[in-house]
Each structure stands twice: as structure tokens, then as C-alpha cells.
Amino acid sequence: MTTMSEPRIEPEGARTPVLPTRVAKTKNRGRRKEAWTAYVLLAPSLLFFLVFLLLPSIFAVVLSLSSWGGFDLSTIEFVGLENVARILSPDSTFVMPILTNTLVFAFGSVTIAVIASVAIAQFIERISLQGFWRTLYFLPLVTTVVAVGNVWKYLYQPSGFINGVLNFLGFKSIPFLTDPGTALPSVIVVAAWGSIGSAILILTAGLKSIPDTYYEAAEIDGANSWQQFWKITLPLLRPTLLFVLITQIIGGLQSFALINVMTGNGGPANSTNVAALEMYQQAFAFGQWGTASAMAMVLFVIIFVITLIELWFFRTKGEDTE
To answer: What is the largest CA-CA distance in the chain?
Structure first.
């Protein structure tokens, strides 16, 4: 005769164990839900990036390898590297003087702007009414490029304010924008003046991040202000300075509006013509979209290489001073 086993009685307070697979499935469902929520929230930004940045960039690469007059996509004709070879040929004006002007304009304006902004930021840190002075230097940045260009264009006129002061002091008038030898330097000065404000704000933030204890220790050791700048301020300001240099050089290499306002089509005699302005003229004035896109690709490579050189140089200098 078989006997039935007695049911197992769980001790009071014991919990039923949860299977690991059930826990894993619950966690996976939670993660998928969070991921979908994140994608939904990011969808507007991702769509903007796709429509206005990624697709135009891909289309520009395609156009750089094609010949197209605009509007009708069915007329696009693939030509390979013919556009690049043509604009980089010895008889092309793109390399000389356009690319040369672009590099001179970018490095000239950035050099003036960075040196002046470092000096002004240091000076503002030592005086009162710092907010007022930062706002004053930042005003050119919030003013439209067209307004800035037209004001300086008037100041540079033969009968303008600057030449009026020179004549009053007994000097001859300077043909700032009408002489090929002075036109580009004149525009470089305006570009540097207009970009000092943003550099001052960024460098001021970098200066404020340097602990005062370093300067106090340097004063105890007998270091003067010049030694403190070279031994403390400049090395610790290197990351901020790198950011300013990279952004300013990229902006200088892509500059277009200021030159277009002040000198028209890059005159006189192509002395102020730069890559971005030539791209605009090739595309919208001459209908050579393939040539303009090839110029854009060449300029992109130049900007990329210069940025890598800057990063390598500052990293090397940082390692040497450690």
C-alpha cells in the first residue's frame, strides 16, 4: 500500500526565489524602453543633423566629382578628380593668389586677435568695472558683419576719418582698400578687431580657473609679473588657448561676408579674394557647382590638417613642460 508524501512546509518568512531569466528579461525591457525614449527625444536634433549637415556634406562630395550647372539633378555628370586637378593646376588662380590670401588672412587675423585678447584679458583682470570692459569688447561680435564692414569701409575711404586724422597730422592719405598692397592687411585688421571679443570672454574664463595660490607662491619666491605670466599663466592657459586658436583659425579660413562687404568681389586685382568667396562666385555667379564643391573639399582638407598640427604641437609642448 503506497503512502502519500506529506506536503513540504516552507518555513515562515521564506521567499519564493525569482528566476534569473525573469530578472534579466525585466532589465532588458527597461533598457529598451529607456533607449526608445532617448531616441524619441533626440529625434528632432538627429533629423536636423541628417537633413542640414550630413546629407549636404555627402552631396557636396558627390558634386566635387561631378559637373553640374544647378537646379536639374538629371544633368549631373560624373567627371572624377577633374575638378580638383583643374583648380590645383599651375595656371589656376585658386592656389595663387586665392589660397595664399586665405592662409594669410586667417593666420594674420588670428595672430593679432589672440595676442591682443590675451593682453586685454590680463589687463581687465587687474582693473575695476570688469563686466563693463568685457561687454564693451564683446559688442563688435553681436553687431552684424554687414554693419561692421560698412563702418570700416567708410573709415578707410580717402576722405574718411582715418585719412582725415593722418592728413591733419601731416601724413599722406593711404589707399586702404584700393591698393592691392594694402587691401588685404586692412581687412585683416578689421577681422581681428571683430573677433577679439569672443576670445577675451573665453580666455577670461581660463584665467579665472587658475588658482590664486600659484601666484601667491610665486610672489613669495620673488617672481615679478612677467615671470608669473610666462611660468604660470601661459602654461596653465594652454587648453583654453588651444580652443581659441582652433576656432579662430577655422573661422578665418571660412571667412566670406566681411571681405565681400568691404571689397566686393575680392578686389582690387584678386588681392583680397579668399577661398570661401571664390566658392560663392563659382557656384552662384558662374553656375559651376562642381568646381565650387571641389574647392570646398580642398579647403576642408587644409582645415583638417592645420587642426591636427595644432593639436600635435600643443600636446608636444604640454608634455615638454610636465
So the answer is: 133
Q: How far apart are CA 80 and CA 67, in angstroms?
A: 9
Instruction: Give the residue among 263, 261, 260 at the shortest CA–CA distance from 281.
Output: 260
Residue of 263, 96, 93 whose CA lies nearest to 180 = 263
CA 170 to chain centre: 42
All structural domains of the chain, each given as residue ranges with its CATH number in brackets, are 96-320 (1.10.3720.10)
Grid-cell match 563659382, residue found: 282
Q: Is the dihedral of CA 259, 263, 266, 270 positive or negative?
A: negative
**pTM reported for the whole predicted model:** 0.83
Q: Angle CA(102)–CA(105)–CA(107) in degrees, nearest 5?
A: 105
CA quadruple 267, 270, 273, 275: dihedral, nearest 10: 160
Q: Give me the residues paired with residue 67 across strands.
A: 77
Query: Which residue matches cell numbers 591733419?
Result: 168
Element housing 77 (H / E): strand 77-78
pLDDT digits (tens, 9 = 90+) for 263-284: 988 888 899 999 999 999 999 8
- The residues facing 77 across adjacent strands are 67
How far is it, in rounded angstroms, from Cα 253 to Cα 243?
16
Rounded-to-10 torsion of CA 248, 271, 300, 298:
-160
Q: Which residue has the cell 588681392?
A: 271
Contact call for residues 83 and 290 (beta carbons, < 8 A): yes
180-208 and 238-253 helices cross at what angle (nearest 10)?
150
Our measurement of the distance from residue 247's CA atom to the centroid of its chain's CA atoms, rounded to an integer in Å, reads 3
**Secondary structure letter of residue 66 according to DSSP:** E
The band of 24, judged by pLDDT with boundaries at 50, 70 and 90, is: low
pLDDT of residue 25: 66
Q: Are the beta carbons of 92 and 294 closer than 8 angstroms?
A: no
